[in-house]
Amino acid sequence: MTSVQVEKNAGGSDAAGSASEEGYQRGLGNRQIQMIAIGGAIGTGLFLGAGKAISKAGPSIILAYAIVGLVIFFIMRALGELLMYRPVSGSFSEYAREFLGPFMGFVTGWTYWLFWVVTGITEVTAAATYVQYWNKGIPQWASALVFTVALFGINLISVKLFGELEFWFSMVKVTAIIGMILIGLGVITIGFSKAGDTASFSLLWSDGGFFPKGIGSTLMTLQIVMFAFMAVELVGVTAGEATDPKKVLPKAINTVPWRIGLFYIGALIIILSVVSWTVFKPGVSPFVAAFQQIGLPAGAAIVNFVVLTAALSSANSGMYSTGRMLRDLALNGQGPKLFTRLSKNGLPTWGTGVSVAMMLFGVWINYQWPGKAFDLVVSFATISGMWAWIVILLAQLRFRAKANRGELPQSEFKAPGAPYTSIFALAFIGMVIVMMGADPDARVSLYAAPLWGLVLAVSYLVLKSRNPDMFGKGDIAAVAKSAPQSGKQG
Predict the structure, then answer these.
(1) What is the separation of C-alpha 215 from the centre of its chain, rounded to a whole number of angstroms?
(2) CA 477, CA 19: separation in Å to the nearest integer?
(3) pLDDT higher than threshold 80 for residue 481
(4) Neighbours of 456 (CB within 10 A)
(5) For a Cys staple, 123 with which of 149, 304, 314, 386, CB 3.0–4.6 Å?
(6) Radius of gyration of the chain (CA)
(7) Rounded to an integer, what distance in angstroms lies between the CA atom of residue 320 and that of residue 237?
(8) pLDDT exceeds cutoff 80 at 37
(9) φ and ψ at residue 10, rounded to 5 degrees
(10) Residue 168 to residues 126, 153, 214, 310, 486: CA-CA distances in angstroms?
């Protein structure tokens, strides 16, 4: 459904029904959507990235996660308002196209696609390195190949299987964090293990204070913290395949505060009370370091397994979302028509297949030139991920303005405090981007963004010159229904 159709049907269209016109099967239930939402907020950014943030800011990193967590909640409630207005699989690019113009939809769709391709490359490669913890004799490329092919196969079977795999991936992460919190509480309160004599909540302020390196250092970690929450918006891409989106999605979005409170803030409070912040180093999981300090040798192996599942979960999500994004672009004339095809099971096989092929190519490059060829592209993934958040907020502001004027129906799931919360979130993201420019390690991503923008701008002008009517004037429902299945001729 394009913006033209939406305007015609603003008086009373069924959002859930319009989403089903895309041709997808609604195979994701409440249990799976909830765990996908939880899993999207827990990844290697917490299990590994937190070590660097702690070394830079000390205990005050807890405050940084709390502030960013609030901003993420504002973003997710803005997304929820849009999803209840019109839950579609294209999600961010669809809303950008409708409220910000066809060019913004084009940029958002292709940028989010690239974000997940690059993320898939890095996560599969990371998973392969984690395997070497148990057996260094297994070549990294072999593990990466096996993981990529296996996850691709799962994504070709059914959306239910994808959801089920994500459910169990998320269950592993959730169970592990809860277990770590309980063990840490036991060390602090009962005093068992060799860390029992020194473990105390007073470690949060007694070893150099709560801001041991100053407030400025804490502010500079905000970019690291922001990156840890990348992919939390993935629940929006599932809208077109949720069994009951108007019931399931609000529940998933409203769990964001307690997820962040428990899995990030709660976990960090515990490990920083078990071990002094001075012990943690960049590149080392703070959970591994904490278990080593406690004296549980199995802890490192357990955390390694959890991080492995986190990486595979992210790669699996990447394969899922890239196919949907390419199909949405194709349905709007902004991508090859081949990507409009669905398999007999209602899956965007061609879009997913092309994306996986690029992931495989990336694994090969990473094998040939580890740590060099991907520096520019991987760093760009972070800025492209934040682009999705910016678009969500801008689209929600435009939607709210139109709804208040009576041009569109009001959403059934209004964002509290909007538009002020959305404006605050936009300003916060802008501040983080400015700080990225002041950090030599993150600055490279800002160099890559204009180059990618130039490529998209030229591509858009070329496509529009060839067929001006395709941009913003097609009928997605009609195109989706006429799109052939993968096994048939187009």
Answers:
(1) 28
(2) 9
(3) no
(4) 18
(5) 314
(6) 22
(7) 9
(8) no
(9) -60, -25
(10) 20, 17, 40, 11, 29
Residue with tokens 């196919």: 323
Q: Are 435 and 223 in contact (CB under 8 A)?
A: yes
* Paired tokens of 248: 């399931």
Token duo for residue 310: 């986190």
C-alpha 172/C-alpha 150 separation (Å) is: 19
Reported as a single tens digit per residue, the pLDDT across 180-229 is 889 888 888 887 777 777 788 989 998 889 999 999 889 888 888 887 78
Separation CA 10–CA 7 (nearest Å): 5
Least confident interval from 2-6, 309-313, 372-376: 2-6
pLDDT in tens, 223-246: 888 877 887 787 766 665 667 777
Token reading at 489? 């001729």
CA atoms in the 13 A half-sphere facing the CB of 294: 28
Average pLDDT over residues 3-25: 43
Contact at 8 Å (CB) between 226 and 68? yes
State the first-to-last Cα distance of the chain, in angstroms, to the nearest integer: 21
Compute the average pLDDT of residues 118-131.
80
Cα 253–chain centre separation:
14
Note the pLDDT of residue 16.
40
Q: Does the pLDDT at position 451 exceed 50?
A: yes
Q: Which pair of tokens denotes residue 357? A: 């092929």
Q: Is the predicted pLDDT of residue 284 greater than 80, yes or no? A: no
Minimal CA–CA distance to 85: which of 421, 389, 412, 419?
412
Single-letter residue type at 325 = M
Looking at residues 352-361, what average pLDDT do you find? 87
Predicted confidence (pLDDT) at residue 104 exceeds the cutoff of 80: yes
Average pLDDT over residues 59-73: 92
